[in-house]
Amino acid sequence: MSATLSDRVDAIETVVLIAIGGFAGSNLRFFVGYLGPDLITTLAVNTVGSFLLGFVIYEALQTDALSTETRLLVSTGFLSSFTTYSTFALQSIRSEPVLLGLNVLGTYGLGFLGVLVGRAVANQVERWWGQ
After folding, report:
1. Can you list the alpha helix ranges (DSSP code H) found in the chain?
2. Would the pLDDT of 66 be above 90?
3. What is the pLDDT of residue 131?
4. I want to staple 118 with a disulfide (CB 3.0 to 4.6 A). Which of 16, 55, 71, 96 is the partner?
5. How far apart are CA 70 and CA 51, in angstroms?
6. How does pLDDT run across 31-65, given as a tens digit for each residue?
7. Rounded CA gap, 44 and 32, in Å?
8. What distance in Å separates the CA atoms of residue 123 and residue 113, rounded to the nearest whole number?
C-alpha cells in the first residue's frame, strides 16, 4: 500500500514536531545540568518529566484540549529529550553500591510517584474545569 501525499505530509509534520520538542527538551536538560550535582539534576529532571508526562497524557485522555500534534510535541519530543534514562543508568553504575541502590530506588520511586501525582492533578483540573 503506497502512502498518499497527505499521509507523507502528516508523517513529515510529525517528525518536525518531535524534532522541535526534542531540541527544546534536550537543551533545557543540558542547562539544568549546571544547577547542581549530576545525580541530583538527573533525578530532578526525571521526576519532573514523569510528573509532566503523567499530567499531559491523562489530561489528553480526559479532554480534547490537547491535540495529537501537541501530545507529540510535548511528550514524544520535549519530555523524552528532557528526561534521560541512559544518563541515570551510567551515573548509577559509576556510583558506590549504596548510592547506586538509593539512586535506582529514588529514580523509579519518584518517577512512578511523579506520574501518579501528574494524573491526580489532571483529574483535579478536569473536576475544577468541569464545574
Report:
1. 5-32, 38-62, 68-71, 80-82, 85-93, 97-130
2. no
3. 63
4. 55
5. 17
6. 999 999 999 999 999 999 999 999 999 888 888 88
7. 9
8. 15
For residue 113, give the nearest of 50, 62, 44 by alpha carbon.
50
User: What's the chain's average pLDDT?
Assistant: 93
Domain ranges of the chain: 5-130
Residue 102 · residue 47 · CB < 8 Å: no
pLDDT at 1 over 80: no
Cβ–Cβ < 8 Å for 66, 60? yes
What is residue 34's three-state secondary structure?
Answer: helix
Q: What distance lies between CA 56 and its chain's CA centroid?
A: 9
Residue in this structure with the C-alpha cell 480526559, named with its chain if needed = 62
